[in-house]
Amino acid sequence: MQLVLPSGLSAAAFDRALQQFRSIVGEDWVFATDHDRDSYLDHFGFDQAAHVGSAAVAPQTTEEVQAIVRIANEHKIPLWPISRGKNFGYGSAAPVMSGSIVLDMSRMKKIKMDIENGTVLLEPGVGFYDLFDYVEENDIPYWISPPGNAWGSVVGNALDRGVGYTPYGDHAARLCGMEVVLPDGDLVRTGMGAMTDSPSWNMHPYGFGPGWDQMFIQSNFGIVTKAGMWLMPKPETIVSLDMELDRADDLGWAIDTLAPMRRSGLLQQSPSIGNWLRAAAVLTNRTDWYDGLGALPDSVIDAIRAQFGLGWWSVNLRFYGYEEVTTAMAEKVKSIFASRTSYEMKQGIWRDGDPRELQPFAGVPITFPLQNASWHGGRGAHVGFSPALPQSGDAALAQFRRTFDRYNEFGMDYHGSFALAERHITNVNQVLFNKDDPDMVDRVDRFFRSLVNDASEQGYGEYRAHIEYMDLIADTYDFNNHALRRLNERIKDTLDPNGVLSPGKSGIWPANYQNERG
Ligand code: ADP
Asked: Which residues, in sequence order, are CB contacts of 201 under 8 Å at separation 6+?
């Protein structure tokens, strides 16, 4: 990609800033060729040219991050921090605002494990595979919680509220204590970290006074250079219960059956109820099934289900811990379901010492589900649309029907799931598309906007957004004339008067870039 200079900066000032960055991190760690810029594009984006970094700088220490931030302030250059930049479907490594310099922290890879307490202090460059290898090679009796695709960073994923499938799957909730470089270069440690050398930094989440960890999640208020995280003690067993639901309408009663179990703690992890395309899109391509235009017809849906032995929806439950407890929990769940349905629940058990299932359920990172991007052929991609709903079967069913109709209207194939958190449902839609098909790209954009509109009419907002749609989503959070956005931007301008940190992230624009909104 050709150079797009940071807004308001001359080419000479840009070159001077890059020289200053080189003096901090070394010649090899400032990237500013066309080729370099390509590697930080959003490869799953509709319009890669709309979000292009001007360069990237890759520090190795917190002190280097601080020095870079000070130089950015000197020139008023916006930085876009990433951990590993694998946030596919939400923007990958690319910035909201073109011309920003990507602050690539993938070289910061220190891991400090406290085995006794099951906490780990991580730098942002530590990937799920790095942490998995570290835990396994050192025979540490804890498991990681990988997301569906585990190419990314443990910290980066948690900072965008990514989720996993074990009882520790709400990653943002498992963060405990951070080290943060503020937009002026100052360094703060949150929670107990505010006390020099406190041994309980990564154990007690609050410390004294206000707790700020959440303030640095999905925000542009600071650069996280270390984060504490709790890991799940390795379980003695995992008991599995898998069920196929035959009819689309089964979603409603299934949600109403599972929700009280989730609230009471009988279900420890967030079960995700997903449709037939989840498996088909990973294992096959669309042309294996159908050559026609428009959404897949029912006859093809039936053929896919028959081939993979799938229901309209699949429900996969997992119970973790001592065998007496996990088997008793599974029995209880089966007896509750038996009063509502005759669908079979397939039961399995993994015991410590057995080979691990290659699944995030079992704390094992995988990337092969990314294969689903090839569903339509061409250079494939997906974009996430994921509103949060109340835990009600009627609400879930209505949301499904509304969304399914939209998929049909826009000729897209339904790829949806309903994940039960403790008190809400996240309705994750992974909209698969072919970037080489301009008509499809245009349709997906219009489709996405109608989904957002439909959901917001119900008061449902997205839990996470692609960089292209951050303003659109922030707009839907509209109570009292967008009071939350006004609060966010007051904080932004106080902490970051030069607007150097991720302008536009989560729809939060600093005063000097207000005209960039939208
Ligand atoms: P991953 O590689 O795990 O997918 P990313 O590095 O792509 O994660 O990060 C996701 C988003 O979170 C980024 O686009 C950025 O806005 C934000 N982010 C990531 N790492 C940091 C960090 N260390 N400090 C502040 N924000 C971050």
From this structure: 121, 176, 177, 189, 191, 192, 193, 228
pLDDT at 24: 98
How far is it, in rounded angstroms, from Cα 104 to Cα 151? 15
Alpha-carbon distance of 510 to 371, in angstroms, equals 38
How confident is the model at residue 1, as a pLDDT? 85
Is 49 strand, coil or helix?
helix
- Predicted TM-score of the model (pTM): 0.97
- Closest-CA residue, ligand 1 atom 18, reads 82
pLDDT of 46 reads 85
Q: Looking at ligand 1, which residue's alpha carbon is closest to its atom 22? A: 224
Q: Counting atoms of ligand 1 from 1, which one is nearest the CA of 222?
A: 25
Closest by CA to 109, choosing from 209, 258, 225, is: 225
> Is 513 in the active site?
no
Mutate which of 62, 87, 226 for ligand 1 pocket (most atoms within 8 A of beta carbon) = 87
Name the stretches of the chain with pLDDT < 70.
none
Q: Which residues line ligand 1 (CB under 6 A)?
A: 81-87, 91, 105, 124, 152-153, 155-157, 159-160, 223-224, 502, 505
165 is catalytic: no
CA of 501 to the centre of ligand 1 (A): 12
> What is the spatial distance between Cα 142 and Cα 376, in angstroms, rounded to a whole number?
39
Whole-number Å distance between alpha carbons of 313 and 291: 24
pLDDT value for 6:
87
Domains of the chain, first to last: 11-104 (3.30.43.10), 111-233 (3.30.465.10), 237-464 (3.40.462.10), 471-516 (1.10.45.10)
pLDDT of the residue at 2: 87
Residue 197 corresponds to which tokens in the numbers above? 């050398």
For residues 252 and 256, what is the distance between their CA atoms, to the nearest angstrom? 6
Tens of pLDDT along 233-274?
A: 999 999 999 999 999 999 999 999 999 999 999 999 999 999
Which pLDDT does position 27 carry in this prediction? Answer: 97
Residues in contact with 270: Cβ distance below 8 Å, sequence separation at least 6, in sequence order: 163, 165, 169, 170, 262, 419, 420, 421
Please report the pLDDT score of residue 191 as a whole number: 97
